[in-house]
User: What shape does this take?
Amino acid sequence: MQKKILSQLGALENLQAQHFQISNLDLVVIKNGSEVSVLYGTCLHRGALLGDGQIGANLICGLHGWDYRYDLGVSEYNNSERLHKFYSEVKDGAVYIDADEIARACGHNKVQDFNFKDLSTTDYSVHQLTGIAYARVNP
Ligand code: FES
Assistant: This one.
């Protein structure tokens, strides 16, 4: 396991679905107070980005309304379906993910196999300065 920072906790809006993209992997991140869920970010119905969804009692897909428990990723519509929940940990004000798990989900064997095109940033100014892909929907 290689823990890497995904975001600062304070940069995440509380109880809002937020899209992140690492390489070709879409993630939806939901902060609930000091807890954070990092889930596979596309809907199991027709693939809509769940970062565009709404949070009510659950994470609700903006396209056709499938809902998922945002703490577990389990579909309320069909409990046998679930969004993969990625490892995450909040520590010292930052949200950490397991870069090795993310690398495997992106089709790499290890995080060292990533290249420049796999990188993304949640900092818009870093994106503007470096050309690294921006990982959020809105600046
Ligand atoms: S694509 Fe999400 S409910 Fe249809």
Q: What stands out?
A: The domain at 3-133 is CATH 2.102.10.10 (Rieske Iron-sulfur Protein). The first helix runs from residue 99 to 105. DSSP finds two helices and twelve strands in the chain. The chain has a mean pLDDT of 89.
